[in-house]
Design brief:
Length: 208
């Protein structure tokens, strides 16, 4: 364990949110203020992938214990290959209980120590795990990828990590996101899982 249950609850209030059903239809887009998109892009832990200055920016708010997020991760490399002009941004959004809180603390620690260039390997590895993902399992994967456990634990427990998670939770709430995954494509939000084809459709709409 990275933190005790009591310490976690004192440091970060996270409510358990039900996981949406694996629906076939794409979520309905909702227009969001450009300021909230800009605030998301300004989050220190936002991980940018794909084109550094893409013609469309797609942002995913995800939780490591979300089944639709797992599917999204499985599609990620195919999406980046199919959309070379896309900027894709990952935002850690721990909303599925205490295991998710500890998991995301450890993942953000790895991000702080090793940067976004190496973060994708951890991200994909965590979604290949079976069962619940918590901080202990994230640390094991991070060590396997070359992380130093004492340094990771120190970073996970740092006030900066808790502040990052609180700021992300506040911003996600402002966007109306109560479950994962939730997406921003340009200034449209999509709350719910999306297939690879549905993502590409949303990107095409954003391009006009």
């Amino acid at each position: 364990m990275i933190l005790s249950r009591r310490t976690l609850l004192a440091g970060l209030a996270v409510s358990g949110v039900s996981i949406p059903a694996l629906a076939q239809s794409a979520p309905e887009p909702q227009l969001v203020p450009i300021e909230l998109v800009e605030d998301t892009l300004a989050l220190p832990p936002a991980v940018r992938l794909g084109h550094p200055h893409g013609d469309v920016i797609m942002i995913e708010y995800f939780d490591y214990n979300c089944p639709w997020c797992k599917r999204s991760a499985q599609d990620l490399q195919a999406l980046l290959k199919a959309e070379p002009d896309l900027s894709y941004v990952l935002v850690n959004f721990a909303v599925l209980g205490i295991p998710s809180v500890t998991a995301h603390k450890a993942a953000l620690a790895y991000l702080q120590l090793h940067g976004p260039e190496r973060y994708l390997d951890l991200h994909l590895a965590l979604f290949r795990l079976r069962g619940a993902v918590d901080g202990t399992r994230v640390l094991a994967e991070a060590e396997r990828l070359g992380g130093n456990r004492p340094r990771l634990e120190e970073a996970a427990n740092a006030e900066r990590t808790t502040r990052w998670m609180k700021d992300t939770l506040t911003l996600g709430t402002s966007l109306g996101f109560v479950a994962t995954p939730s997406f921003l494509v340009a200034t449209q939000s999509y709350a719910g899982g999306m297939t690879l084809a549905q993502k590409r459709d949303a990107i095409a709409v954003a391009r006009g």
